[in-house]
Amino acid sequence: MKHVIALDVGGTGMKAALVAQDGSVLFEARRPTGREHGPDAVVATILDFAADLAQEGRTRFGAAPLAAGVAVPGTIDEKNGIAVFSANLGWRDLPMRKLLGERLGGVPVALGHDVRSGGLAEGRVGAGQGVGRFLFIALGTGIAGAIGIDGTIEAGAHGYGGEIGHVVVRPGGPQCGCGARGCLETLASASAVSRAWADASGDPEADAAACAAAVDAGDPRALAVWQDAVDALADGIVLAQSLLDPSTVIVGGGLAEAGDTLFTPLRAAVTERLTFQMPPKVVPAMLKDTAASLGAGLLAWDLLSMEVTA
Ligand SMILES: [Zn+2]
Questions:
Q1: Residues facing 249 on adjacent strands
Q2: Which residues have C-beta within 8 Å of that of residue 49, sequence separation ≥ 6?
Q3: For residue range 70-97, what is the model confidence (pLDDT) as tens digits?
Q4: What is the pTM of this model?
Q5: Cα 179 to middle of ligand 1, angstroms
Q6: Residue-wise pLDDT tens digits, 237-271
Q7: 219 CA to centre of ligand 1 in angstroms
């Protein structure tokens, strides 16, 4: 069975798979990233993991993987295969494609941005299947997005395309890690909702999932916190709608696990803000936390098909 290696490197854990050409997952594995040991150790862990996956492929399918795809957080130079910067993992100008290619005996390697890779997978085999234009938004520790166009993702001229988390929706609002104030991710990320609910409930351990549960139970303090986040998110989505006019907005990440508790008020808040814009379908992501790994596999297959046609 022809297959490629797919690897998603997160701040705490790595998710890997062997992926067939049709996007089906043949084998899955997880390992800790071990970032507490420093950036060099993380790179060594990634290379070891990839080499073990290659061996797994040979054992299971009698042939080495044809290519590898790796999705990483931060700023990526996809064209040159360089992880330019990751605050999370402590990288600067890391030649990931070269290192991984050497370790794997010269197979082609694709390097992708984690959220854009996740968006790619949602677009090809998840909630965006058959949708020409979509926006993927991941509500996690921060907020990131991916602009889907006919089965590909628009990364922008400098690799920052889709950064909806840093659209300012409340000028002068909370300080964001990027240096600005009132960015969407300071108001509607899972972390932002956790913080707001911890404040409002007086329980420092309270998180976004607890807030969603309190909303379902009809707690008015939770409803106020939740609606603030929903309103901010709707403002961000309407801005994106005006610029990009997607037919579908796919919402994933931790906060989306609240299901209808999020999607019902969010759809209402988006609809009430639209004037001339056509309403997008606002739907939950399908692939959950394996999206980025699967997307890395699809990038690897894309690389192979480009080599064939070149
Ligand atoms: Zn920001």
A1: 135, 282
A2: 7, 14, 16, 29, 31
A3: 999 988 998 899 999 888 888 899 999 9
A4: 0.93
A5: 6
A6: 999 999 999 999 999 999 999 999 999 999 999 99
A7: 30
